[in-house]
Design a protein that fits this description.
By secondary structure, the chain is mostly helical. It contains six helices and no strands. The chain has one domain. The longest helix has 42 residues.
Length: 157
């Protein structure tokens, strides 16, 4: 678990740095990414659930972008909230950060309408890939350590 926490911290740091220093990637980092990190850490989600949550986040981001493009005011924010809460309940997404992602277009300006949903997709895919790689590494290290312990026990017998 600690390894995953450190890996997520490093991933968030990298994404934040990229969003600050690489032209066109300023929407890649969003604070809700930290909430998704905690969500994926705190609950063992099956791959199907992770995909469902990720798709829900991308769809919520697209809905927020569309609502903001139609009318960038409080009414659109309210309608966005209603639609996303309905979507979370309807599809049993059980991931409150999805609602937060839908609000990003209301406080982050982007020259391209597609940038936010693509950024959300890319950031979450990167997060899931990071967690998967660390998980696979932990399993491999565990197998190696178990083999070493077994070999040590056999040599002592």
């Amino acid at each position: 678990m600690r390894t995953k926490i450190v890996a997520i911290g490093l991933y968030l740091m990298l994404v934040y740095w990229l969003s600050l220093h690489v032209e066109g990637l300023h929407t890649l980092f969003f604070p809700t990414l930290g909430a998704f990190s905690l969500l994926f850490l705190s609950r063992p989600l099956h791959p199907k659930e992770v995909v469902k949550v990720a798709l829900g986040a991308v769809l919520a981001s697209a809905i927020g972008v569309l609502a903001h493009a139609v009318y960038p005011g409080v009414i659109s924010l309210f309608v966005t909230m209603l639609v996303i809460v309905w979507m979370i309940r309807k599809f049993q997404l059980n991931a409150p950060p999805i609602l937060s992602v839908s609000f990003i277009p209301f406080f982050v300006e982007s020259p391209n309408w597609w940038a936010m949903p693509v950024s959300v997709a890319g950031s979450i895919v990167g997060l899931v890939a990071t967690l998967y790689m660390v998980h696979a590494l932990e399993i491999k290290l565990s197998l190696v350590l178990n083999a070493l312990v077994s070999a040590k026990k056999q040599s002592l017998d």
